[in-house]
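Teaching assistant here, posting this on the class forum so everyone can see the example we discussed in section. The complex has two components, and the goal was to see what a joint structure prediction looks like when all of them are supplied at once.
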Amino acid sequence: MQATPTFHNLPLQKGSFTTLVEALDYAARGETGYNFYSGRGELCSVLPYANLQVEARSLAKKMLSIGLSRGSRVALIADTHPDFVVFFFACQYAGLTPVPLPAVIQLNGRQEYVRQLGRLLDDCQAKVALATDEFMPFLTEAADDLMIPFIGSLQDVKNLPDSAEDLQPKGPKELAYLQYTSGSTRFPRGVMITQKAVCHNLQIIIQHGVKVRTGDRAVSWLPFYHDMGLIGLLLVPMACQLSVDFLRTRDFAMRPRLWLKLLSENKGTISFSPPFGYDLVARRLRDGDVEAYDLRSWRVAGAGAEIIRPQTLARFAERLAPAGFDEQAFLACYGMAECSLAVTFGSLEDGLKIDHVNSDQLLEHGRAIPVPPAGDQEEYRSTSFVNCGVLMPDYDFEIRDSEGHTLPERQCGALFLRGASLMSGYFGNLKLTREVLSEDGWFNTGDIAYRIGSEIVITGRAKDMIIINGRNIWPQDIEYIAECQDEIRTGDAMAFFVHNSQGEELAVMMVECRISEQQPRLDLINRLSRQIRQELGIDCVIELVPRGTLTRTTSGKPSRHATKNIYLQKIATDSQMS
Amino acid sequence: MKEHDDVLQKILEILAVTLPEGGPEIKADLDLIDDLGLDSMKVLEILESLEDSFDISIPMNVMPGVRTANDLARELQKIIKSE
């Protein structure tokens, strides 16, 4: 078996397409394509774009025989596997809408995973659900009482008869896919992205973000059920005819060094990761490993999807400098599923641009006053942020205060965006759509930012979500677990996140509780900790407090921010007393 | 062919070096997450060691049904037999 080549004769077409089918039809004229590697880093299957086109068309004919109306949702367990890719493109040719679903299973997590799949299948009203053989048992169980007309594997679809209908691929105004945001698992939000919107985003990434050129090759371990993996590393390379080498996310997490091995052996030039991936490599690298790698070809080391902490990436760069890794290859970017993917990019070959600002001014007045990067001096404390770069073409942005007024340079506020890559809305949820997307096309990102000229610096999330080990954790999901207990009433638990003394994010939940005896209190705390660990995979500090402690807004909504301040004051007092 | 007890012994050895000292005594029927406090990253480190020790690949769909070291030993033995 041989991987698809990096160099080939088809002229480079930089993503100027109006549908995904148009892009694949062009790429299929060359020799490049997708390559899949095993958990030991060995090539285990090769899918050139030419074969993908043939297989997807043939599968599309079979799928049409099920008799679905145009645009019906086809749920796909998005394992890093050629079958998923064939399913995804078969939908494009058949005029159906693929919906990638998570392919992540935790230890002892069967029940929770099946429940999550069930909620998503239900939310998108899937008419077909497909998976690889490995995931079929979970899918079948999740779909148990949902009345989905067709559930099966690649072979099951192949066994269907060919439809007599001609293929009518999706047009520019039709949906390209439905992407569930990595939001709360209880309250899923399916982002609707049209062909035109995603193709626009692919084009700006190719031409302005990464500036793809002949000789580029991508390497990725990012999951296909996440926007950066699906759009950034599956669709972008296809839309500019590059070969990609894929590693499963779990295999990367188990053996992070495989990422470096693939980049070295295949002379990869483009790869992206959340900061957590760079951190994992730096921590798991063994002395003496570094000589085995040659990272001189790696010209774009993208970092995004969570707040970038400069120290994390600096440690990675330092450790891998002997292997030829160039710190200037780091490329900060910012984006989200609601904008297809990319919103801003830093400038290429410049490395990370850090903005140092006065911490007190930032905390008290939301002003980002630049200071020399001297660290903590007598007169002031400083905070460092990574500059996420300039807005991509055809986007407008505004930074607004809580009353909706546009703020001047270096003043923090909510980041609003408008542009051609934006979603059409959340599937089947007009109310939620209206909350974030205005009639005149402005989208509230939910992130807090300030601008320096046309460059954007993200300082935090207005949403209460945090990311632990690459997983998005929502306070609502932690609180829900508390509210399911007999002793706790709805609205009596509030969860939020604080930094521990090592600067790591830690989940805390304060629960109003009437129980006064010691043993039942301990039992409740233990039960909550256990269930949170089981369902969300994180540790959470549980504090039982008297009634009336938690802060609510005048309309009775939880104020997590104010409650967090109460908690911080409480631990400060406790530590003074001890 | 490896017997269940040999596989279990190896799992317990790996747990002993992976888990921090001073934790609860490691036993075959304890819940790996609830009782022994394994987080998702530690689980992956342990799987890596096990794959290397037995020269096997552990499929992704094995993990959701595993609660204790005993469960893990039983699953691994099936994989070792089939490879």
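For the discussion questions: Chain A has a mean pLDDT of 90. Chain A has three domains: 20-334, 353-461, 467-577. Think about how each of these relates to the inputs above.
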